[in-house]
Amino acid sequence: MSEGERSPLLGNSQEEDRLQDDVEVELRGCGATAACDPMRPYHRYCVLFVMCFLSFGSYFCYDNPAALQDRIENDLKINTSEFMQLYSFYSWPNVVLCFFGGFLIDRVFGIRLGAIIFSTFVVVGQLLFAAGAYTGSLWLMCAGRFIFGIGGESLCVGQNTYAVSWFKGRELNMVFGLQLSFSRVGSTVNMNIMEKVYQWVETWGFNGHQCLGVTLFIAAAFCFFSLVCALLMAFFDKRANAILKTDEAKTGEVIKFSDIKNFNSGLWFICIICVAYYVAVFPFIGLGLVFFEMKWGYTPSKANAVNSLVYIISAVASPISGFCIDKTGKNIFWVISGTAVTLGCHALLAFTFLNPFIAMIIMGLAYSVLASSLWPMVAMVIPEQCLATAYGLMQSVQNLGLATISLAAGKIVDLKGYLILEVFFLCWLCVALIAEASLYILDAARGCILNRSAKERHLQAEADEESKKDH
Length: 471
Description:
It holds the Pfam family MFS_1. It is a multi-pass membrane protein. This protein is mostly helical and 471 residues long. It contains 21 helices and no strands.
């Protein structure tokens, strides 16, 4: 891995002045200077567009099982517990491998090669998943989801590291929100078109698990699209590194395994929050189709529509939430608010017959706020040369929770029903609130690094810059 890949891509204004002459020489012959210059916002936002599509395919295909739950269970003649294995086999490898994926990005592959490798895993995994469905083989489908999971979560680590590399100190919360938005667009499109694609494939003469397999092969096209985006990101990042000569500004420090034990304790609280919150969202959506059919008597099409609302709303609201958080700061406050509102939404779904569209819309807004404020906090407590490892660790812990809770959720539905499942999710959200309160207290004792206002962060950045000049 080159040193430049571990550095912030963009420097401060003094560095920009120093580099401007060299950059103009490098860009000579490029007609659209603003679009070609990595120091210009226009170029960064063009690259951001490609960056956001990096994990689009993996998010689209991640919830293929949820969108086709009835079809999978009927065509393969499996129960809900067996169906949920398709999610747990996605998550289990990432309990360990996602962390190592982040470490490999930091220490061995670099962001560019790592993103390409893990995008390839996503493509291969989805193809095996589709082949298993076509042949009616549940074990092959699970193997495909296993490989898909290795690539999907580690690819997200690479995407997060790219985001910090290009936008740290600028619009980071907004960028994370926008990445989330594009990812949720992938999930939303999946929820709303996969049933229609299945019905369309049926008109070709395919039936049963063969129809299911062909449908999933078609979905694999989105994974190929994300692989193309990984190749484009490698080109843009390598080019920017060559133009800005970021290698020259680096100290040569790299992460070692021994550094992990010294990670800021705030990161561990962030990991707990991530697990406790996300297990009340993703497994719920994975099982939500039948829940809305049974409790409200919805048709599969209408149940899919309400089940995808969290993704639809977050796709629109996430960049707006991130922009607001960039302007206000107070990340921990927003995280607590998002969790508390989500808890209220689950209570409405569990104990009332109020139109579920209301609760799911509000949950989508709360999810947007939490995700846009939670993930950027890692970059505030962890040195940049360790960022991919830290994000990998966070997603490893998240996947440990998702793997175990997905299995438990399927068992709870089979044995106790959906009411007990909702109580189960409410308990996890209470755990998240306790962890958030603990993080707030810890952060207050350390100078409110995570909960500073935007103005306080700006003043601190200026003070750090002056300190560097003095040295």
